[in-house]
Amino acid sequence: MALSDDLRDLYQQVILDHSKSPRNHGQLTCDCVHVHGDNPSCGDEIDVYVKFSDDGSIADIKFDGQGCAISQASASMMTVKVKGSSRTKVNTLMQDFRSTVMGEGSIQDEDALGELQLLEGVQKFPQRVKCAMLGWRALEQAIQQAEEAKC
Ligand code: ZN
């Protein structure tokens, strides 16, 4: 699907905004799960820190890292979306975001995705898909670690 000029402008603005002023940037030190992810083909690196509530929802999340604008902007947008969300909501968001950037599967909750839908432009570029997914992969691992720790 070709992006209209307006959408392309918006896409660039949002990516630029988030990569220049990343939200929830930094580290969490106490009582949190820390996952490091990297994307060697692009040189992107990311550290995701997640603090889970007792009910499994995401109480707080921060990220740190360096790399291309897409990897950092996507992680920044992710933290905004998942902070305070229940595990179920995060899982849906994670699946929907993957479907969006891979260009396959169906979207379950378009409203929840919001501006993340702007990243659908990367689906034509497999290398960029890895950049966009980097932070999300780290979050997925953090959730797995938290679940294993409870067993
Ligand atoms: Zn990248």
Give a brief description.
With 151 residues, this protein is α+β, with helices and mostly antiparallel strands. It contains five helices and three strands; from the N terminus they run H-E-E-E-H-H-H-H.
Q: What brief labels describe this structure?
A:
17% strand; 3 strands; Sufe protein. Chain: A; alpha+beta; 3-stranded antiparallel beta sheet; binds zinc ion; 151 residues
Describe the structure.
The chain is an alpha+beta fold and 151 residues long. It contains five helices and three strands; from the N terminus they run αβββαααα. The chain has one domain (5-149): Sufe protein. Chain: A, CATH 3.90.1010. Strand 1 (33-39) and strand 2 (44-52) form a beta hairpin. The N and C termini lie far apart (44 Å). The model has no long low-confidence stretch (mean pLDDT 93). Bound molecules: zinc ion.
Bound molecules: zinc ion
How many strand segments?
3
CATH level 1 name: Alpha Beta
Low confidence ranges: none
Please name the CATH topology. Sufe protein. Chain: A
What helical percentage do the residues reach?
Answer: 40-55%
How many distinct folded domains? 1
CATH architectural grouping: Alpha-Beta Complex
In whole angstroms, how far apart are the ends? 44 Å
Topology summary:
Layout: H1 5-20, E1 33-39, E2 44-52, E3 58-66, H2 69-82, H3 87-102, H4 110-113, H5 126-150
Antiparallel strand pairs: 1-2, 2-3
Helix pairs in contact: 1-2, 2-5, 3-5
The protein binds zinc ion.
Zinc ion is lined by residues 39, 42, 44, 67-68, 70-71, 131.
